[in-house]
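Example complex used in Figure S2.
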Amino acid sequence: MIRFENVSKTFKRNRVLDGIGLDIGLGERVALIGSNGAGKTTLIRCLLGEYTHEGEVAVEGLAPRTERTRVLAAVGFVPQLPPPLKMPVGQLIGFAAALCNSDEKRIAALALRLGLDVEKVRQQPFVKLSGGQKQKILIAIALGRDARLLIMDEPAANLDPEARKIFFELLAERQHDTTMLISSHRLNEVASLVNRVVELDMGKVVLDDRVADDVSLSGLLDCRIRVKRSEPAFAKALAAWDFRSSADGLEWTGEVAGPDRLRFLGMTSRYVALIADLSFSETEKVSLPETAA
Amino acid sequence: MKELWLTAKLDIVESLRARWFAIYSLVFGGLVALLFVFGLTESRVLGFIGLSRLLVTYIQLCMAILPIFVLITTVRSVAGDREAGVFEYLLSLPVGLGAWFWGKIVGRYLVIFLPVFAAMAGAVLWALVRGIEVPWGMFGYYTALLAAMGWCFLGIGMLISALARSTDVAQGMAFMVWLTLLLFLDLILLGVMIQGQVAPEVAVGIALANPLQVFRTAALALFDPQLIVLGPSAFVILDSFGATGYKIFALLYPTAVGALCAGAGYWFFRRGDLP
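Predicted assembly (568 residues):
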């Protein structure tokens, strides 16, 4: 599906990519990780045909730079930083849908699933939306067409837990016929989304590892937490994950999306002194034994 | 073709929403309105002197304002989008670079030409309603001249925009280009000729390579066919081109300059990094 062959990129005297060689097959979900300046964004821009470079990049045998429209017709892209577009949301969706031979209604329906009613923001300038709203629109545009390659740069960073859960479901619906390249600074943000990890450092691939694909993208975990005492900050954090509390505020229950469990545990780790008991159980398919903290 | 029109439409809608377009339209609409007000004021004494003088004054003012307006607003097109980080996303959509670049030019061209034309057409319409004689030949030629002038400076603007990596640099370059063309209108040429360092034909040749001078001379030629106000330069121009030949040259040359600059801008745009 994607082939990088000895790809290098130099800005003035700064070599940002240094002989990258990678083959990514159809259906692979690749986490592209690395610290700031590792070359992730540059690699993505080479893949999108936006940067000139040494070496060869091919998507289904076509060079993105010279066969732009054919390659990009099969690519859905979500950038890390939403573009500061002054055009209204409706116009952006219309423009993208017309270029991608997609349907505005399909994009609007996806945005609605993510929790954003396009009709309510249609006339608003895109740049004036909140970070989460922008991300939902860009995800809806990327997923609202028949893309065989999804390139996403920190796609869930600005989403609330509920929208993230839906986002994972949307990815799960596409996982068998779509290749995904998900970039992130930290592996724990994307670990459960992917079945392969590629780490870049100083423009080189320093790790290329396939990981166990045992977390269902659409799976849900029932979670129960018992706390030693009621703490407003923890209650607020759990409420953001749509958790419900008992009358005395000492027991909390809710659902966590399978791929989001590392992020959830990351949040709870800040309140570890408060937690008396924490358990997860899978709600679908085979139930896993409960784990207790 | 669909991608080109979609990009053009996007640029048009963006421009119509921008503050610069409101100011731009107000300036040219206001100019015509002012010229009418002064023309009508004069008419209390002498009677309305006709549309010819209004059109001549309008085209002279356009020559002073239009180029810098077009340059300053156009150079922000590519450089501004690149600087703002818009390219990374919009150029990840399946749009060809040619369709994107030329679509922006088409959209921008319509946006800069239509207000100046509409202001002039409005004056003609008003004259028709009031039963004032309309110099159709002059109106037609000035329309073509404005179209050529708009295209010429749009092309130069897009070249600068494609070359510059930031809006500040692009605007600085645009201002320098405009200033250089302005200086070579008369001041420097006259100085050179007075010092006798170059042949008058060379000085006139340099002047005629300057699109601003070409427009200025063409606009003058309509009410002063012998170009008496230009002095001895007129002999060189009329001997070389003839009156009709010069009128045609004044349309073709700036159009060619605009097309060449736009083409060069596209070449630079597509060969480098986009974001």
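The two ends of chain A are 42 Å apart (CA to CA). Residues 44 and 63 of chain A are 14 Å apart (CA to CA).
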